[in-house]
Design brief:
alpha/beta; DgcN-like_C; EBNA-1 nuclear protein; Rossmann fold; about 15% strand; 11 helices; DgcN-like_N; 13 strands; disordered N terminus; P-loop_NTPase
Length: about 350
């Protein structure tokens, strides 16, 4: 429990209701891993997604109907969501004209990029003239304190990974949904822009000043009833040359009872960092438990989540079984469900 001298931690405030349905903007990217915001909304909030819009040269699709902003507006769209999460969260010059096209079509723009959409003069001036909104969701709330490290009540599960963009959010969402279906008191806690767009609240961990990042993780998952679970979306990787800091802050601040390690079979190097090979699942488990013990002495690994979307069902089932035997723990693809996922749930809940 929190010591009596410390006030209860507030949770991040909910976002204002975002205008929807959305047109998902995929820019001109050619790497599917950078389209995780579009994919996440498509898979977890499909009722809010009306179509997709790409720049010339873009090769990634979310599988939704292709539409111009004018066509989307005619079909009832109210906003364009930037569905890209590229390195550094930048908005390149090549996107400005398509985004202006969306404003002129009558759509608001919702962005989860590091660069504030309203800081771009041409977009801000057009939005003001047209009466449109520019909405940034990657903005930390005020009042984040330095972490206390004090233990607190409730149970917590944190998804962690061997790299970025390989299933931490999907695993957390699937686990939270499965917990709830089994009558467990549970909250999904979003820690990145896509999760925040899906859940309507959360903490954009990678936008928090580093000295306050572990405190932001404490705020994201405050003290709760002893039988309550927070399932927390992980970020980055403890081995990542650029993003290890946010992963460690989440681990220390969330104080998880359980970690689930996420991995994509066949990925050989860090996304966008070909000189850095992926760590093994075993090394990732070992480092997570070693560092996690600093703020949660009883931390344990509940199992492994694999993204087997590139495999046929028989090959995926064989891989999950062989990896479970090799690692000595539950190994599942939460998006496939089945007995392997049931075993992962049992091991997480203890």
């Amino acid at each position: 429990m929190l010591p009596s001298s410390l006030p209860p931690l507030p949770t991040p405030p909910a976002l204002p209701l975002l205008p929807s349905p959305h047109l998902l903007f995929l820019g001109d990217i050619s790497e599917p891993g950078y389209a995780k915001t579009a994919f996440g909304l498509r898979d977890w909030a499909p009722q809010r997604c009306i179509g997709e819009f790409r720049c010339a040269g873009g090769t990634v699709s979310a599988g939704l109907p292709a539409m111009t902003p004018q066509q989307a507006a005619a079909r009832g769209a109210r906003s364009l969501v930037i569905g890209v999460a590229n390195a550094g969260g930048v908005i390149p010059e090549s996107w400005i004209e398509p985004l202006l096209q969306a404003l002129h079509a009558g759509l608001d723009i919702i962005s989860g990029m590091h660069v504030r959409i309203a800081s771009i003069a041409r977009l801000r001036e057009a939005a003001d003239a047209l009466g449109r909104q520019l909405i940034d969701v990657r903005v930390p709330p005020p009042g984040i304190a330095v972490a206390t490290g004090a233990p607190r009540s409730g149970k917590r599960l944190l998804t962690m990974g061997t790299d970025c963009a390989l299933g931490k959010k999907y695993t957390a969402l699937a686990l939270a949904r499965a917990f709830a279906e089994r009558g467990v008191d549970v909250d999904f806690r979003a820690s990145g822009q896509t999760g925040i767009l899906i859940a309507g609240r959360g903490m954009p961990m990678d936008a928090v000043v580093s000295d306050f990042a572990a405190g932001a993780a404490e705020m994201l998952s405050p003290a709760a009833a002893e039988d309550h679970w927070d399932v927390i979306e992980g970020q980055g990787s403890l081995f990542h040359p650029a993003y290890a800091g946010v992963a460690l802050a989440l681990l220390h601040g969330s104080q998880p009872d359980v970690v689930v390690i996420c991995h994509q079979p066949g990925r050989r190097h860090m996304l966008g960092y070909p000189a850095y090979p992926l760590p093994s699942i075993e090394d990732t488990i070992a480092l997570a438990l070693q560092l996690g013990q600093r703020t949660r002495a009883g931390i344990r690994c509940g199992g492994v989540s694999l993204d087997t979307s590139q495999l046929d069902p028989a090959s995926a089932a064989a891989l999950l079984d062989s990896e479970s035997q090799r690692l000595g723990c539950a190994v599942a693809d939460p998006m496939r469900g089945g007995p392997a996922f049931e075993q992962l749930l049992r091991q997480c809940l203890g």
